[in-house]
From TrEMBL:
Residues 32-70 form the Leucine-rich repeat-containing N-terminal plant-type domain. Coiled coil: none annotated. It comes from Durio zibethinus. The chain crosses the membrane at residues 964-988. This is Probable leucine-rich repeat receptor-like protein kinase At1g35710. GO terms for cellular component: plasma membrane. Keywords: Cell membrane, Glycoprotein, Leucine-rich repeat, Membrane, Receptor, Repeat, Signal, Transmembrane, Transmembrane helix.
Amino acid sequence: MSAVTVFLIGFVTIVATGITFCVGNSRVLCIDSERQALLTFKQDIIDRSNRLSSWGDGGDCCNWVGVSCNNFTGHVYKLDLRPPTPDYAILSDAEIGVYWLSMLRGKINPSLLLLKHLSHLDLSYNNFGDIRIPQFLGSMKSLIYLDLSGAKFGGALPHQLGNLSKLQHLNLGDLNLGDNSINRLVEARNLQWLSGLSSLKYLDLSGVDLSKATDWLQVTNKLPSLIELHLSACFLDNDPPPIRVNYTSLSILDLSGNYISPSVPKWIFSLHSLVSLDLSGNALGGLIPNSLQNMSSLKFLDLSTNSFDSSIPGWLYNLNHLEFLSLRGNFLQGKISSAIGNLSSIVRLDLSGNQLEGTVPTSLENLVNLRQLDLSNNKIDQVISEILQSLSRCCSDDLKSLNMATNNLSGHLNDQLGLFKSLSYLSLSQNSISGLIPISIGNLSSLKYFDVSENQLDGNLPQSLAQPMSLEYMNIAYNLLEGTVSELLFSSLTRLRVLRASQNKLKFEANSNWIPPFQCRTIEMGYWLLGPKFPTWLQFQKDLSTLDISSAGISDVVPSWFWNFTSKMVSLNISHNGLEGEIPFLPVHKLVDLRSNRFTGPLPGVLPDVATLFFTNNSFSGSLSDFLCDNKLGKPKLFLLQLETNLLSGEIPDCWLKWRGIRVLNMGNNNLTGKIPDSLGSLDFMFLNLRNNKLSGELPLTLQNNRDFFMLDVGENQLGGSIPKWIGESLPNLVILSLRSNSFDGHIPEELCQLGSLQILDLGDNKISGAIPKCFKNLTAMVTKPYDTDAVIDYFVDGEFIRSELLVMKGRVDEYSTTLSLVTTMDLSYNNLIGDIPKELASLEGLQSLNLSGNSLKGKIPDHIGNMRLLESLDFSRNHFHGPIPVSFSNLNFLSHLNLSYNNLTGRIPSSTQLQSFDKFSYIGNHLCGPPVTEDCSTNVETPPNATNEGSHVEESEGWFEKYGIYVSVVIGFVVGFWGVVAPLYFIRSWGLAYYEKVESIRLKLSAFRDRF
């Protein structure tokens, strides 16, 4: 053995021994001064989840969480304190809460400067509460990698970072992610400090305000090593200083979410080495620029969420080097060309959210590398099996994601679906797909997301769902599925986190001791048959935040464990069942819907952060004071409160100032008494319904401060006084006004004519006198045909439309809900109105219902009433109108209810399909002839035009008694009847009250009998 050999063996042995020693006894690797520096750093950190519990006084700092050391020198070279990033789509609220707790807080101690060999520092996605990025970081000269993204730093970027000459990776993006305060935006007025970072390969300043940094293009262009540049949402426009661009190494450019318009900056087209270009979320429009086809290295192109409005250009289909293409959320039109088959390299294709129509070409089968396809939110009209057939020929084994939601797809799902073995995401919602869910769905063992909601699927749920699957999200809601679901079907869905299955006809019978194999965050089984017993298996769902078991046929006392169980819930809907019992407290955080059950006792207390409460149609009793005035849990955030149809009594308490967030309040159909308190008017209402109580006094003046009022209904109370003028002066957005069945008196104020948005005006059954204002012609919402828009009546609150109102139309009282936004009605019936019908009223051509019955109106019916062609209900009964029915009534083609009875109308009933379709009771109490009344006009001479005028002396052949006897009889009958019956009722008050109570009792019985049959 030579000396050289011996030397080599000895050297290797020494090295191996050293390595073994270092690896086997790692405690020597920790440098004491660096351990102390880390402990000092920890002192200024707030660690609410105790994530840094391994950081102690003793032990090896190289084994601490987030700390990495060099195995030879023992120096700390890497500090990675980024919390684990959760998947918000499937995490429960509890898990998300754990993530938020895991964020480090506090401040950054300068002790990090003692880590002289630190080259990698990652503090991203923690929460440092808007403190500034420490300037001393610019002195850590050994840093190669610095990531502070999403860590909620504020203020200006420190220019000292420009001293980090070795830095290759700098990520300062999304520093205030999730913070909407414009005052907390991180900004940089110039980027000259970047010039010193000659080694920089990766730069991300996304979310930093660079609107004043006009040198951004000039500076970044001079970074010789730059490969990736991310400047998303930096408030950039399309007007940087003109320079010659020469990014020598740039391959990835992200300028998404800026103000670039109206065209793609020309300098971008010179970047021939660019591999990835993201221009999404700008204001680009017109044609997609054809200069993009010259960028031969481009593999990733994102032009989504812009305003391109042409068809997809043919040259785009020839970019066979593209692997990712997104044109989502533009205004692209026309059909998808068969040339789409030329995109032979495409892996992910997103054409969603456009106006593409027609069918998907069969050339789709040429896309052999396709893994994700999104054509949702278009107008594609095709049988779903044809699309699956094309895809099965190219990528059935490899396709991972398919989204065809919100199109016009039809036909059946067939067993082809089972060919896509790698499919993890499938959404076909909001189409017209019918038939069964195929058994072959059980073959999709990789499927995590499955959404076929809002289709026409029928039949049973396939038992193949019980096969081992990876389902985390399943949405089968709003279909026609039926049959019984067994526990076995859920046996393999161990990963299920979201189950949305409402609005089907499914039945689930679970044993009382059944324990679900899953832990769901959301369960929506509304309209399933889950009863009659309360489903006990729910108590095992420890992470539940959303529960909907409404209309589920449950008739049972709610178990006490349930109310404790709801403490994690954000949304609870158990409405429209037969649930019973008292509720001690409701620990639900956002939405509670208990409508249409049998709950009793006082109103339950609620958490301060609850926003929406539906207690309608139960038997809650007692006063409102405990619920409203004794709340001591914090400042309430309640937005909507529905207490309609309960047994609440007593006065409305005067403690509303703490509930200023309430915008929608419904306390109708209770037994509330007394006056409306002034503090109630201090709320900024949109909707207020106090209908059918026993409230008295006048409307409080404070209500005039609610300028956003859309609906005010205080009908069927005992309110009085004159109609306030401020309703017209101060409530300009009012759409519904109902003062019905009260004791309002005086004239109708002309100020109401200022309510240009008013669609429903109900002043019926009061003591209002005077004439109908001519200025009603200014109620412009009643002039034109109403349209079902996203207007105020359709106001959407946490999944509920607030649009329900009792209206007297077509001779009966009905509740209008889903069509309320299309209704226009005016009801002035049963008041003391006098005078003629103003001809201006006929200008309200959008009116659907007009009721002037039971007044003292006189004169002729204006001929122009027949121009109100949208009228469906017209009631002029029990007035003093005379003369003929206007011939123009023949134009009322939509009329389905007409009552002209008990007036002094004469002559022939005009001929029309509508007028002859009503029975004779619509015309009784007049002097009319022709169908449908029995009097025949053919034997009578047509009444001269002035025959009905006062002072006419036309002589007829009958004798005096034959001519006037009927009137004498009426007078005698009136005298006898008045002094024999009416007068005692009037002067002897107890008799009168007893009489009217009896009459009202008979009326209610007759009404109930009519409704029954």
